[in-house]
TrEMBL record:
InterPro entries: 4-PPantetheinyl_Trfase_dom, 4-PPantetheinyl_Trfase_dom_sf, ACPS, Ppantetheine-prot_Trfase_dom
Residue stretches making up the 4'-phosphopantetheinyl transferase domain: 4-124
Cell wall biogenesis/degradation found in the keyword field: no
EC number of this enzyme: 2.7.8.7
Main location: cytoplasm
Compartments where found: Cytoplasm
Gene3D superfamilies, per database record: 4'-phosphopantetheinyl transferase domain
Keyword entries, A-Z: Cytoplasm, Fatty acid biosynthesis, Fatty acid metabolism, Lipid biosynthesis, Lipid metabolism, Magnesium, Metal-binding, Transferase
Residues that bind Mg(2+): D8, E62
Lineage, top ranks: Bacteria, Pseudomonadati, Pseudomonadota, Betaproteobacteria, Burkholderiales
Protein name stated in the entry: Holo-[acyl-carrier-protein] synthase
Amino acid sequence: MIYGIGTDICDVRRIARTLDRKSQRFAEKVLGPHEIEVFRARFAKVEARGISYLATRFSAKEAFSKAIGMGMRMPMTWRACEVVKAASGKPEIRLHGELATWFAARGLRAHVSITDETDYAAAFVVVERAEG
């Protein structure tokens, strides 16, 4: 059964401007432990790839927060929700701390799709509850 659906579109140029203004502190606020490592590696190699990565994660977290009906309030935090790649390359949601506990207690499962182009990143999240 569908618990919630969320979608978000993000202007990559806005993320780039915010990153310029706030330096990597912005990335550290938004990205979880695994994501920040990937971001730094991509940003060091090709800045535009790092910025696109940050924008897709920002968008996915916004979409996830909408799908769970919570917005950005506890236990939902930027760093408690990560978007990681499965071995197949498929993006998956990984949760930490209180958010992981809250999510599991409700028997929820998330599905995420992310995409980006030069100027935009978008994400779509479906959260379902196990029936039973």
